[in-house]
Amino acid sequence: MSAPYALYAYFRSSASYRVRIALAYKGLAYAYRPVHLLEGGGQQLSEAYRAVNPLAELPALVIEGAGQGGADAILAQSVAILEYLEEVHPQPPLLPATGPLERARVRQLVESVNSSIQPVQNLKVMKKLGADYGADRPAMFRWARYWVERGFEGLEALLTRTAGRYAFGDAVTLADVALVPQVYNARRFDCDMARFPTIARVSAAAEAIDAFVAAHPHRQPDTPPELREG
């Protein structure tokens, strides 16, 4: 592996998007290993990928030589990966240095997305709605839109207390890393972002940063040609 990291990802996976942002923001080189979540029933379910990540989910980060005896190590779960990158590569920081309460508040914003919003609108849930309950694509999108907007109601209230230029004050944090991919999903599901002006404002500010631009789903090696930008 020529880079110290390799990332198993899918262009439109919001959890993968988070890790791409952090890697780009910290200026870390990595090899991109695409895993198509739909092709062939989902490449993440293959035996080959389960050998990498038994959870059969994305993303997974390979860390060259970090395992026992110099073997490669593999981390799954995007927030665990983000925390690892922050510890090992603390500059530029994605957690505030001002104190434990401030860092906990950033993590609260992260988990508002990671635990409360994203899981109920992810691909596994949508496929189950179709397979077991006969939901078609419009019904799946209505489901996702309902849960994203419901989650954004609480998140908007939290952000009115914490936001400056970005989600937590005037510096980019892990809260922005989590928020921007969820806003991308919200747009896909045609959520009414006018209801969430603080979310829209701080997300737009973060989206303009070069690292966030580079990590965008429409700029990845596995982005379909009809969606590709840049």
Structural class: alpha+beta
Rg (CA only): 17 Å
Percentage of β-strand residues: 5-15%
Average pLDDT for all residues: 96
Q: Could you name the CATH topology of the largest domain?
A: Glutathione S-transferase Yfyf (Class Pi), Chain A, domain 2
Would you report the number of β strands? 4
- Which series of helices and strands comes N to C? EHEHEEHHHHHHH
Helical coverage, percent range = 40-55%
Comma- or semicolon-separated keywords:
4-stranded mixed β-sheet, Glutaredoxin, Glutathione S-transferase Yfyf (Class Pi), Chain A, domain 2, alpha+beta
Describe this structure in words.
With about 230 residues, the protein is α+β, with helices and mostly antiparallel strands. A four-stranded mixed β-sheet has the order 2-1-3-4, with helices on one face. It has two domains: about 5-90, Glutaredoxin, CATH 3.40.30.10; about 100-215, Up-down Bundle (Glutathione S-transferase Yfyf (Class Pi), Chain A, domain 2), CATH 1.20.1050. The chain contains nine helices and four strands; from the N terminus they run βαβαββααααααα. Helix 1 runs parallel beside helix 3 (about 80-90), helix 1 packs antiparallel against helix 7 and helix 7 (about 175-190) packs across helix 8. Strand 1, helix 1 and strand 2 (about 30-35) form a beta-alpha-beta unit.
